Amino acid sequence: MKALHILLLSNTQWVLFSTMLLGMAAGMIGCLAYWKRQSLMSDALSHAALPGIVISFMLLGYKNMFVLIIGAAISALLGACLIQWVTVASRVKEDSAMGIVLSVFFGMGIMLLTIVNRTAGGNQGGLDNFIFGQAATMVRSDVDMMMFLALIVILIVTILFKEWKLFLFDPSFAQGLGMSLRGMNLLYTFVLVLTIVMGIQAVGVILMAALLIIPSVSARYWTQSFGWMVALSAIFGGLSGAIGTVVSALGTGWPTGPFIVIVAATFFAVSLIFGKHKGWLVQKLELREKQKEAKRPSQQHLSRKILKEEG
Amino acid sequence: MTVLHVKGLSAAYRKNTVLDNVTFQVAKGTLTGIVGPNGAGKSTLIKTLLELHPRIAGDVHVFGSPLKKVKSRIGYVPQRGSVDWDFPTNALDVVMMGLYGQIGWLKPPRSTHKKKAMEALDKMGMADYAGRQISQLSGGQQQRVFLARALVQDAELYFMDEPLAGVDAATERAIMLTLQSLKASGKTVMVVHHDLQTVDQYFDHVLLLNRTVIDHGKTEEVFTQDNIIRTYGGALRRIKGDESLAYTASK
After folding, report:
1. Rounded distance, CA A23 to CA A88, Å?
2. Quick one: closest CA in B to A228, which residue?
3. d(Cα B84, Cα A173) in Å, to the nearest integer?
4. If you average pLDDT over residues B22-44, what whole number do you get?
5. CA of A223 to nearest chain B CA: how many angstroms apart?
6. Which of B73, B102, B105 to mutate against chain A (most A CBs within 10 Å)?
7. Pick the residue with more confidence: A178 or B61?
8. What does the DSSP 8-state code read for residue B107?
9. B51, exposed or middle or buried, with CB in 10 Å at 0-12, 13-18, 19+?
10. Does pLDDT of A98 surpass 70?
């Protein structure tokens, strides 16, 4: 009853719609990250967004979503550059570089957040919500911006679909055809950061990566076509966003991010067990089928007979 | 007519010079085998020619122009191991990628493109596998898909990186027939090749490479025992009982 009541509120409907679009965009970008073998990169970048949010709040003195998002984007991009630089210029491998950037940036963000909470007045309360996400605090202008950004991301993935496929499958052949790998990598980082920053209010910096990673790995269990993988991942992500938002709206002050992630994880668990391709159940059944075949008496008799005749 | 003109080309990986002052010219309508020991820079040569790997010195002219202007006239078959065959797509889709230049960026492929791709698959004896997942193809079949993708590019100059590595005998025959017919239709083909036994049978020209050009020219003139020892010399001394040593001894 309560769920129905909440759903009927027009603000909730808009928030719901926007988290659904966010989930769809994240699901699509997640597929690109999956085949770029950079799933963990999204985790590093979303954590790296936190100091940018707090610093832009400190500079501005009040909460303006647009400015905070710009700050988050700059901070995440800085993190990306640092990871790139450390990997190229030192003997540190990429995973370690991501680990360093992730923890240092996040630690710095938390430290700054503590300072802000101590010094500034009451209007900074909302900042804490960026850690775990609080979709309910979103106002209409936030929702509009999020939907706008999500549509840009979805458009970039769909229009360039054929190019992404080539870029992810065989980059050196793509380069031979005249595609600029640097350009594609830049565009990829751009859409990834865009997805992360639009998700920080609803899902939060800690769990945003889950929305990028989980839907794509779930989709992998159901299809052998890249197009369907992207579509399914968008559906899983969109549903996770929408359902998670509804559930979190049932209680006052419940964070949205964790619920979205739990829903996404449920889709993953179902895919893992029942998935059509290499799902647990299918593999078990196929194995049993093969075992039965091997034990079939007619064949054994036949082979024994042949052996006898030959011997 | 010279289609490829390479002068003083050098390339390096970090501190190690892999190619040093490589100079050669390739005439139109030839089928050249690039031969040399492991680490001789064979793959690097192709990648550097295609500007997939940065060069530190030298000039490359293709059809008398810098590479950028003539990219659409060049076909490339990378090493089979350079891509992830687990990627969710089918054989036809991979062949279509060879047409992306003709289709144009941002545009969806049309049915004529699909037809072209099917024809190329058919030429490689792979028409029945068009809808097959690439992960479910054998190594030889994957290599044929790569060849078909190069064929649809309808290029004039082809670079192929070890197309015969680890393929079955039937695929090797199919690929060699394709290369011969490319040559017969006036295309120029350069192939990185590792099997010394078949060099004189497969290629009309040989480029012996070991960080620099040891010798280059018509197979019967260049592919001599002396030259092979000069190319593989160090490697032969290091690995005793190596296949190539046995080969040179028997010749």
Report:
1. 33
2. B88
3. 13
4. 93
5. 8
6. B105
7. B61
8. P
9. middle
10. yes
Q: Do B30 and B183 form a contact (C-beta atoms < 8 A)?
A: yes
Antiparallel, parallel or unpaired: β B188-192 and B31-35: parallel
How deeply is B103 buried, as exposed, middle or buried, from its count of CB atoms within 10 A (0-12, 13-18, 19+)? middle
The percent helix, strand, coil of chain B (3-state, each to 5) is 45, 25, 30
Single-letter code of the amino acid located at B157: L
Decide the pairing of beta strands B205-210 and B212-218: antiparallel
> Residue ranges of the alpha helices (H) in B84-224?
91-97, 100-103, 111-123, 139-152, 169-184, 199-202, 219-222
Neighbours of B230 (CB within 10 A): 14
pLDDT at B251 (0 to 100): 35
> What type of residue is A18?
S
Q: Is B105 on the interface with A (CB under 8 A)?
A: yes
Q: What is the CA radius of gyration of chain A?
A: 24
pLDDT value, residue A14: 86
End-to-end CA distance of chain A: 79
Ranges of each domain in chain A: 10-208
* Amino acid, single-letter form, for residue A237: G
Distance CA B144, CA B94 (A): 11
Confidence class of residue A208 from pLDDT cuts 50, 70 and 90?
Answer: very high
Cα-flanking dihedrals φ and ψ of residue B206, to 5°? -130, 140
First to last CA, chain B: 34
DSSP reduced 3-state for A298: helix
**SS3 of B190, please?**
strand
Q: Which helix (H) or strand (E) holds B158?
A: strand B157-161
Is the CA virtual torsion A126, A128, A131, A136 positive or negative?
negative
Residue B231 structure tokens: 């190319």
What are the structure tokens assigned to A203, written together?
């899902």
Of residues B71, B82, B133, nearest to A224 (C-beta): B133
Please give the mean pLDDT across all residues of chain A.
88
From the CA of B64, how many Å to the nearest CA of chain A? Answer: 18
Chain A residue numbers with beta carbons less than 8 Å from the beta carbon of B71 are: 176-178
Q: What is the pLDDT of residues A36-84, one digit of tens each?
A: 988 889 999 999 999 999 999 989 888 888 899 999 999 999 999 999 9
Mean pLDDT computed over B9-24: 90
DSSP B109: P
* Chain A touched by B154 (CB under 8 Å): no
Using a CB-CB distance cutoff of 8 angstroms, which residues of chain A are in contact with residue B137? Answer: none
Nearest CA among A258, A137, A141 for reference residue A204: A258
Q: Are the beta carbons of A170 and B97 separated by less than 8 Å?
A: yes
Helix (H, G, I), strand (E, B) or coil at B101: helix
Residue A231 DSSP SS3: helix
Give the Cβ contact number of residue B96 at 10 Å: 24
Amino acid sitting at position A198: M
CATH of domain A10-208: 1.10.3470.10
ipTM exceeding 0.85, yes/no: yes
CB contact under 8 Å between B82 and A177, yes or no, is no
Single out the residue of B152, B153, B195 nearest to residue B176, CA to CA: B195
